[in-house]
Hints:
Radius of gyration: 18 Å
Oligomer: single chain
Strand order of the largest sheet: 4-3-1-2-9-10
Largest sheet: 6 strands, parallel
Bound molecules: D-glutamic acid
Amino acid sequence: MADSRPIGIFDSGLGGLTIARKLADTMPHETFLYFGDTLRCPYGKKSPEEVLQFSKEIAAWLLQRDIKLLVIACNTATAAAYTTLKETLPIPVIGVIEPGAKAGIEKSSNKRIGVLATEATVTSAAYLDAIHTLNPKAKVFQAASPDSVDFVEGLMATAPEKEEIWLQYDTEHLLAKALPIAERDCKALKEAEVDTVILGCTHFPLLKPIFQKVFGTGVTLVSSAEETQKAVAACLVDKNIKASEQHMPHHKFATTADAIERFSRGGSFIFGRPLYEVQPVSLASLRSPTSFTSLT
Ligand code: DGL
């Protein structure tokens, strides 16, 4: 039976919209309800316990809005909360780490795979485990690039107009800021002679040209978007919860950000369509007992 309920997606901020966009582009009849926890971003510098708690609060908020499936479009939250949410929630849950690991294994010829992620994802070793489950012989090298997350959120928040943000993308000005961060953080992966790097943070595909410049064309950069999309599509079929082909989607967005207008502007660029409806959510309401009694 057709199911027109929304698919819930969340991230610590805007980065998860790289996943949401891939889903919306390929599933034109599905409605998405996206939550960006901008006020508490970056997750990558927080403890697994904190990220698990934030993830539970957001999952409960989304569940109250009757989502049919939850996509954790954040590697850090996937590492900290996927197992718990999968076991606790009454709906299917999909994370981005298994799909990212699969993409990395498929693209690598020498099976020397780099993972560029947040500090929390690196510490969790979730990618190591996911890659080794698929191929125990693969050599995995990890590196963190926390400043790249701040860079993306800051760039999106401060640029005056969306066009101006990315028209500047190749300018000396932007490269001068982003390139030294990328060069510093990718050094160990380059030295490890990886042939593939998983961009294991959903903010990083937005800096792909910069990372590609650092690694050179001999290294393939992969993100989890494509494999995550395949996992979501398969789940909709498997659970028989696809929206009907007549359904006209009406995407909605929610954020803890102080500046809704900035969230909308940066978000519209990443999502590839205007974010018409962005709801502000206070941390107090997110933490209120009625919001997550089902998950505590
Ligand atoms: N975009 C997130 C991820 O995929 C987290 C970035 C952050 O909040 O540190 O890990």
